[in-house]
């Protein structure tokens, strides 16, 4: 994948041939990328969707098992589909524009309650939270 770094961390139980084979299954060949870990063993791994729905469960299970085996406490994996729970870039940009308009164009002599309501309606604070 041209959008991944040259070197990145992968669980040692995944063989190179597995990685090469699996990479074709991910959109944009974006293999799971170990992004962060905590001293308690928790880790954040990002990965693109798997193209072939029929292969998705097998590949996902193999990769999740490898990640679990690399965890010092062998904890269960929690997966979250961020596409469903995070705003897209256009929504973030629109919220930022609304925030700028509110801060520049909205008179501050309005009631505090109305201004705070307008701020909430931009969704900016929700997105940066």
Overview features:
single chain, two-stranded antiparallel sheet, Myotubularin-like_Pase_dom, 2 domains
Description:
Belongs to the protein-tyrosine phosphatase family. Non-receptor class myotubularin subfamily. InterPro entries: Myotubularin (IPR030564), Myotubularin-like_Pase_dom (IPR010569), Prot-tyrosine_phosphatase-like (IPR029021). Residues 1-129 form the Myotubularin phosphatase domain. This is MTMRA protein. With 129 residues, the protein is mainly alpha-helical. It has two domains: 16-80, no CATH class; 86-128, no CATH class. The protein is 49% helix and 7% strand. The protein has helices at residues 16-23, 53-70, 82-85, 89-105, 112-122, 124-128, and strands spanning 33-37, 43-46. Strand 1 (33-37) and strand 2 (43-46) form a beta hairpin. Helix 4 packs antiparallel against helix 5. The protein starts with 15 loop residues before the first helix and ends with a helix. The mean pLDDT is 82.
Topology:
Blueprint: H1 16-23, E1 33-37, E2 43-46, H2 53-70, H3 82-85, H4 89-105, H5 112-122, H6 124-128
Antiparallel strand pairs: 1-2
Helix pairs in contact: 4-5
In short:
By secondary structure, the protein is mostly helical. It has helices at residues 16-23, 53-70, 82-85, 89-105, 112-122, 124-128, and strands spanning 33-37, 43-46. Helix 4 (89-105) runs antiparallel to helix 5.
């Amino acid at each position: 994948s041209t959008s991944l770094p040259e070197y990145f961390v992968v669980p040692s139980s995944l063989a190179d041939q597995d990685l090469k084979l699996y990479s074709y299954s991910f959109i944009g060949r974006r293999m799971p990328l170990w992004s962060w870990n905590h001293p308690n063993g928790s880790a954040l791994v990002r990965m693109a969707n798997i193209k072939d729905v029929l292969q998705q469960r097998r590949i996902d299970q193999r990769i999740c098992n490898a990640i679990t085996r690399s965890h010092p406490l062998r904890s269960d994996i929690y997966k979250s589909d961020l596409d469903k729970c995070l705003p897209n870039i256009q929504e973030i940009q629109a919220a930022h524009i609304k925030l700028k308009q509110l801060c520049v164009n909205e008179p501050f002599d309005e009631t505090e309650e109305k201004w705070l309501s307008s701020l909430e309606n931009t969704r900016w604070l929700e997105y940066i939270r």
